[in-house]
Amino acid sequence: MQVTNLGESPVDTAALIEQADQRHRGPFLNALRLLYRNPKIAAGLGILLLFVLMALAAPLLTPYPPDGPQSQVAQGAQPPSPEHILGTTSLGQDMFSQIAYGARVSLLIGFVAATGSTLLQVIFGLSSAYFGGLIDEALSLLINVFLVLPGLPLAIVLASLANASGVGKNEFVIAMVLLFTSWAYGARVLRSQTLSLKEREFVTAARSMGEVTWRTIFLEILPNEIALVASTYVGTFVYALGAEVALEFLGLGDVSHASWGSILFWAQLNGALITGQWWLFVPAGVCVALVCGALTLVNFGIDELANPSLRQAMPRKLRKLLKTRAVVA
Amino acid sequence: MRYLLRRAGFYLIALWAAVTFNFVIPRLMPGDPLQNYIAKLQNQGLTPATIAALRKEFGADPSVPLWHQYLDYLNALLHGQLGTSTSEFPTPVAQILAQSLPWTICLVGAAVLLSFIIGTLLGVLFAWRRGSWYDTTLPPALTFLSAIPYFWMALALLYVFGMMLGWFPTSDAYDLSSFPNGPEWSLDFILSMVQHAALPVITLIIGSLAQWVLTMRNAMVTTLSEDYLLMAQAKGLPALRVVFAYAARNAILPSITSFSISLGLVVSGSLLTEIVFNYPGIGYHLFRGASESDYALVEGGFLVVALTVLAANFLAELVYSVLDPRIRHGRA
């Protein structure tokens, strides 16, 4: 999680000029241009895309099933070999197929939790700031309470209670637990941004023209802080993925189903460290680190887009444009 | 003073919320986890008398009205009763947690302090030498390191430095064979403690360093462009004085504001790290409680962690109000 520093910077003009510059291009070219101009977003999205493709194309990439009786294809844990490029697990399952199919579970849980959590963040953050008064007091209190309560212990309590309640160990429960424990930070960030946005003229204008409240909030204010929503979304995704792997590692998820966390759970249970079977825990950890690292890169890119003072150097053409602007004005 | 009272009030409410979560959540869950849990205990071969006592302790007696259960629960908490652990029967949960809390506090305290100092200094350096090779390469590298899950970093360090190279011990908080009578005040013991805590603390520092570096760097970049810094440099003040007494002093406030968030993350990370290193802190017991469905231990563990984190946050706010007079005088 990094700090986003999105003040109302005067560099909005730069974005305007850029926009005017691009108006005659199509949206696809614009997207490509964005990626070209912002290598951090491009690299991050590229890595993420690779993992999504691996998850989707798992049956094409590996002939071995991830779980079930058919999945035992070797005698116990074998180090990497030409047939099993990442080795096999203690149960004799192909590690690469575990990783590829496990990516489905891990990425899906992260996606569901982050999406739901972002919805909560937008609703709580924006309405708290927009309505103000008692509503703001109550919602801020709720947000701040969730913010100071440590997330992972709360998630452990929730997940182990869900196990005891007979809901069963499943992916959905984990996603809900993560959703419930991850929304507070983003809500606070969005609230403070909305507080400053709602004083702007365009909001007053919309209100005095008789715009309905929910339209003012979601169609006037929200689009103006979409960069912030995007960056908290990515941040929440990183948190959710890490916490999901952690909960599964603790055995609170469905450990009979291949996922990156359950791979690590079995590795720990079978003493992979003591016996020196590094291939049991290295691949899953590297995958989590790569995906989280890629998402963090995307977040850096978004920060730079929204707050140009963080960019290393402004593109020369834009600087020249700005200069002429300043002279004209 | 009014500010402090307000904040104290907030933390009391947060504490009440944590306590109430513990009471409400198991009762809101579908399928009544408490009854399931007690049914499970019956299969474990505990005597009916013990189970009846446990049932009373959990306040899960259906004949007692809900509000009365809640009052009983609060009353028990006020007297420090967190129930009886079933995985380490019949040790009271409070006793297990009281023994393990100091270890977690040492671990988290050392990690937060060290990574705050190192990270903030690095942030100052990167911002001061903005655009240098280390400013362009190290922050992304640190961020990548912090994207690695804590427990996996712990596994990797344990494997390389504990197992393969054998530089560090691989479990426990001190050498159990040299000190069979438990902790004592001696140099040898402290050395053994430091040796055992080194790898877990390094894990936590690596995981949380990037946060401090980036917060400090970004705040410094903004502060460095202020006119008064140009003035300070123009006056010919030594560079070190400009950086630390003029720029860093003002740029450090956002780092302290983000303390509560990073503390929560480090505590979560520490819980996982303890499990990997078999470090006898709260996290280790939370894990045992969760895997052996020792429900009283998990809930008690959560409460103790929440209480500690809230207290630490309150302390951080006290420090903040000393550092930033605008807060003290209510003009922020």
Automatic annotation (TrEMBL), chain A:
<protein>
    <recommendedName>
        <fullName>ABC transmembrane type-1 domain-containing protein</fullName>
    </recommendedName>
</protein>
<dbReference type="Pfam" id="PF00528">
    <property type="entry name" value="BPD_transp_1"/>
</dbReference>
<keyword id="KW-1003">Cell membrane</keyword>
<dbReference type="Pfam" id="PF12911">
    <property type="entry name" value="OppC_N"/>
</dbReference>
<feature type="transmembrane region" description="Helical">
    <location>
        <begin position="172"/>
        <end position="190"/>
    </location>
</feature>
<dbReference type="InterPro" id="IPR025966">
    <property type="entry name" value="OppC_N"/>
</dbReference>
<feature type="transmembrane region" description="Helical">
    <location>
        <begin position="138"/>
        <end position="160"/>
    </location>
</feature>
<dbReference type="InterPro" id="IPR050366">
    <property type="entry name" value="BP-dependent_transpt_permease"/>
</dbReference>
<comment type="similarity">
    <text>Belongs to the binding-protein-dependent transport system permease family.</text>
</comment>
<dbReference type="GO" id="GO:0071916">
    <property type="term" value="F:dipeptide transmembrane transporter activity"/>
</dbReference>
<keyword id="KW-0813">Transport</keyword>
<feature type="transmembrane region" description="Helical">
    <location>
        <begin position="278"/>
        <end position="302"/>
    </location>
</feature>
<keyword id="KW-0472">Membrane</keyword>
<keyword id="KW-0812">Transmembrane</keyword>
<feature type="transmembrane region" description="Helical">
    <location>
        <begin position="41"/>
        <end position="61"/>
    </location>
</feature>
<dbReference type="GO" id="GO:0005886">
    <property type="term" value="C:plasma membrane"/>
</dbReference>
<keyword id="KW-1133">Transmembrane helix</keyword>
<feature type="transmembrane region" description="Helical">
    <location>
        <begin position="217"/>
        <end position="241"/>
    </location>
</feature>
<dbReference type="InterPro" id="IPR035906">
    <property type="entry name" value="MetI-like_sf"/>
</dbReference>
<feature type="domain" description="ABC transmembrane type-1">
    <location>
        <begin position="103"/>
        <end position="299"/>
    </location>
</feature>
<dbReference type="InterPro" id="IPR000515">
    <property type="entry name" value="MetI-like"/>
</dbReference>
<feature type="transmembrane region" description="Helical">
    <location>
        <begin position="105"/>
        <end position="126"/>
    </location>
</feature>
TrEMBL record, chain B:
<keyword id="KW-0813">Transport</keyword>
<dbReference type="GO" id="GO:0055085">
    <property type="term" value="P:transmembrane transport"/>
</dbReference>
<keyword id="KW-1133">Transmembrane helix</keyword>
<feature type="transmembrane region" description="Helical">
    <location>
        <begin position="101"/>
        <end position="128"/>
    </location>
</feature>
<dbReference type="GO" id="GO:0005886">
    <property type="term" value="C:plasma membrane"/>
</dbReference>
<protein>
    <submittedName>
        <fullName>Peptide ABC transporter permease</fullName>
    </submittedName>
</protein>
<dbReference type="Pfam" id="PF00528">
    <property type="entry name" value="BPD_transp_1"/>
</dbReference>
<feature type="transmembrane region" description="Helical">
    <location>
        <begin position="259"/>
        <end position="282"/>
    </location>
</feature>
<feature type="domain" description="ABC transmembrane type-1">
    <location>
        <begin position="101"/>
        <end position="316"/>
    </location>
</feature>
<keyword id="KW-0812">Transmembrane</keyword>
<feature type="transmembrane region" description="Helical">
    <location>
        <begin position="149"/>
        <end position="169"/>
    </location>
</feature>
<dbReference type="InterPro" id="IPR035906">
    <property type="entry name" value="MetI-like_sf"/>
</dbReference>
<feature type="transmembrane region" description="Helical">
    <location>
        <begin position="302"/>
        <end position="323"/>
    </location>
</feature>
<comment type="similarity">
    <text>Belongs to the binding-protein-dependent transport system permease family.</text>
</comment>
<feature type="transmembrane region" description="Helical">
    <location>
        <begin position="9"/>
        <end position="29"/>
    </location>
</feature>
<dbReference type="InterPro" id="IPR000515">
    <property type="entry name" value="MetI-like"/>
</dbReference>
<keyword id="KW-0472">Membrane</keyword>
<feature type="transmembrane region" description="Helical">
    <location>
        <begin position="189"/>
        <end position="214"/>
    </location>
</feature>
